[in-house]
User: What shape does this take?
Amino acid sequence: MFRPELIVLEETTSTQEVAVRMALEGGVSGATVMALNQTKGRGRSGSQWISPPGKNLALSMIVRPNIEVLKTPLIGMLSAICAAETVDDFCRPFRAQLKWPNDVLVEGKKIAGIISEARFLGKTVDFIVVGVGLNVNSKAEDFPNQLRESLTSFLSLTGKIVDLRAVATTFLQGMSELLNRVESVGPDFIPLQWERRWVHKGMKLVRDGITGTAIALDSDGSLLLKLSDGKILKISSGTTSCS
Assistant: This one.
């Protein structure tokens, strides 16, 4: 059972590092670390997550789901769904969309990203630590020059400053509801629910020089591209670009 317990730190190197350490020490599902400032915040694929102190939401949560090892990526996708719903709640009338695998966009600009790390015990999932970075109170000038045209925030969309704890609470409440559904019926609903916000569905995407049409997600969250010869290319990790 996922029961949110929020720990707020003024500063840490990385909420992901803290949460992984907590999980290894027996931290319960729902234990969550939020930091007002990260000195070594991490994004996906080892990239650095840049955020001015005290302006954006950075948290990492421990999840101990009863799912198959092969379906572990679905928990990250579930977190992206919840982040998108949180954006909707605070930024009406805007509606967030999703870019595979786990980016959250509004009007084509990134507003949130998800990373996840898992530990397995044999054929079972011991824990997953999901990290969430959500641009909340950043102004355009807070972003690096080369990224200003590709990023947005709650403030940029609404003109309003939002309390970070309120955003964290809303997100964690949503995660609790979604994870309880996983416990009740399993994770198979996640790909279809994710696809409802998929910004690139039906579009031409390129991966390693191969172009295909984005047709669906597989049951484990992998991206399925239909190639010109009718074959289906399954992509389990990495990134794609628009054709």
